[in-house]
Amino acid sequence: MSSDSARVDSQKAPEPVGLYPHARRVGNLLFLSGVGPRERGTKKIPGVELDAEGNIVSYDIEAQCHSVFRNVRYILEDAGASWDKLVDVTVYLTDMKKDFPTFNRLWAEYFKDNPPCRTTLEINRLPTPIAIELKCIATIGGE
Ligand SMILES: N/C(=C\C=C\C(=O)O)C(=O)O
């Protein structure tokens, strides 16, 4: 890995599910790895009911949205950035038709009238049994 970026490992966000940091800083930009609605130190996913094989039986998208926004905030804060420094967010939903209206409403509540750029995509499956994952870029420092 190039040494001209600094690794960020959050102590509050959920543990990565593979070999990647929570974020990397390059100059005054902060690139976050994709993060979902999980809780650090537990396999529990807010609002999700799983069967014995770990397949999703049901989930509450509102609980997942609150959780994933909280995790993004944790990573930003542990990196020395903040929520209002987000500039670009890619949103992955596993069920656009069902979950987009709720997600879109909560997004507006979290960002009020100064939101970052956003791209929302539907994908078939995420690496963990979650319904939403965010990929974020923020600015940091240099002010
Ligand atoms: N970023 C990745 C997974 C994140 C999953 C989660 O936070 O639940 C990845 O595998 O690249």
TrEMBL record:
Keywords for the protein's UniProt record, in alphabetical order: Hydrolase
EC number: 3.5.99.5
Alphabetized Gene3D superfamilies for the sequence: RutC-like
Domain of life: Bacteria
InterPro entries: RutC-like_sf, YjgF/YER057c/UK114
Gene Ontology CC annotation, any one: cytosol
SUPFAM superfamilies: YjgF-like
Protein's recorded name: 2-aminomuconate deaminase
Provenance organism: Myxococcus xanthus (strain DK1622)
